[in-house]
Amino acid sequence: TQIFERIDTLWEDRTNLNLSDDELTVLEKTWIGFTRNGAKLNEEEKKELRDIDAQLSKLSPQFSDNVLKSANAFEMIITDESQLSGLPETAKTAAGEDAKSKGHDGAWRFTLDYPSYIPFATYADDRNLREKMWRAFTSRALGGKFDNQDTIKDLVKYRAKRAQLLGYDTHAHYTLERRMAKDVETVDAFLTKLENAARPAAKKDLDMIHAFAKKNELTDDLKPWDIGYWSEKLKKAEYDFDEDALRPYFSVEKVLSGAFTHAEKLFGVRCTPIKGIPTYHDDVQTYEVKDLDGTLRGFLYADFHPRPGKRQGAWQGSIRDRATNANGQIDLPLINIVMNFTKPTADKPALLSFNEVETLFHEFGHALHSLLTDINHGAISGTSVFWDFVELPSQLLENWLTEPETLNLFARHYETDETIPAEMIEKLQASRNFMKGWQMIRQVAFCRLDMAWHSLENAGDIDDVIAFEQEATSEYALLPYEGGSQSTSFGHLFAGGYSAGYYSYLWAQVLDADAFEAFVENGLYDEKTGQSFRQNILAKGGSKPPMELYVAFRGREPDPDALLRRDGLLSFSPKNGTLERKKVTSKVT
Questions:
Q1: What global pTM score does this model have?
Q2: Which residues are catalytic, by number?
Q3: Domain count, the chain
Q4: Within this chain, do residues 370 and 279 fall inside the same structural domain, yes or no?
């Protein structure tokens, strides 16, 4: 209370304190943070808020723990090699080594970890086994010992109660007050625009897959466990493109080196290995990050492979943000990027799928946001920005990955050192917008589910999690419901900080699609454009409103149609119907 009284006094007298812009922003953020956490409530209300927060602090870790334990409780051991038909050799080898490590010699072990599940769901010819894996994956933390249904009910109930105690209608209203979108109505209109563009394309995608599958001897109706499998086969037939053929060109070491070269060419920053830095696990590699003039920016920790107890997925974390310490010195950022890539084998390095390459570039984009900040106040440095803005740097970096100029920096065959063939890049580009309508409508459905859970005023009235989920998403489901739940394992919503914020990914895709058009127009590695993005966005952190930063970079507000243009869901229209590309060679080599 005494601390807030001092903050409140400073806030009331802020115009007379001769504060810098950054100091004023920190003061404002601090004051708002106190008020949004109950500083202005009476003592009885504060006690109620503390009780709610105590419940919430238990529920989110409990949710994550249930998902992890539920996933770890499943394994599928295969002893008949014929059941592995269709699987890439990399997936078979990894499954064989995993089985051996668990005492199953001569067998193959598959789990719900992404590096195991995704290849199986995409390539396995055995439809019954695909269904078994799909049902296990979509039933994580649904029923049984590690059930999350009551956890979800409690989470949304306490979030709603908390928001209403603080004077907001719902948790979504509370959350969106501190976002670029600002309110529920803006998010709804945004999602409706994307939905209207995506729905007819998604229906067309599904019809196309179904027709192809029937032509190739699928006699049953199309099921959810068929989508990944038949869409991959259709893509291969349509574009003569097998995405798994890219893997030999994407060893994890070369991809990481390519990400570093990419950042050097774009932003003038160099990452080099460094020994002797303490780490939290032997698997972790360390790099020092410097400007080209030698100025140290911070340190990067790369943690790339699964291990017991490590949670699934990929993320960027901050061990320490850039900030001025108590002695008046600047503490440089210590940033980690965490993945769960398949481990190298005795005779092969870790070879990444194209999606995993995108993931690495994505998380590295987050890391650059933290490492290249010039803000010396931890509360507003690096990724301490509005959540619907934080994905811009990460998603922007993914855009270069279908460009020959970028792929030729690092995509080399792990055995022959041959550069990735131009024909393969052309096929990758041609297939880029394959199934984009389907993908978009799925993302819109996830966003609608998020907003449904967090727009509840009487959240304690939910009896049936599955029924609620179906009501929220059924109009976006182009296939009949086959069981399972998205909610019970949806960590972004219930354990990952994206409650009432999952739309942020699509929001940021609009930003990154529009931002990338600037590089297309001026040159993929145009130094001026790269430095403008670094100085106006990466360097500024949360020191100014995000729209102000974006306009400083782009010269205008983002064009919402940029995402639809990129995804082939809207006819190309800028510059009289064409987006002119200009090739500019960066001065950085």
A1: 0.85
A2: 363
A3: 3
A4: yes
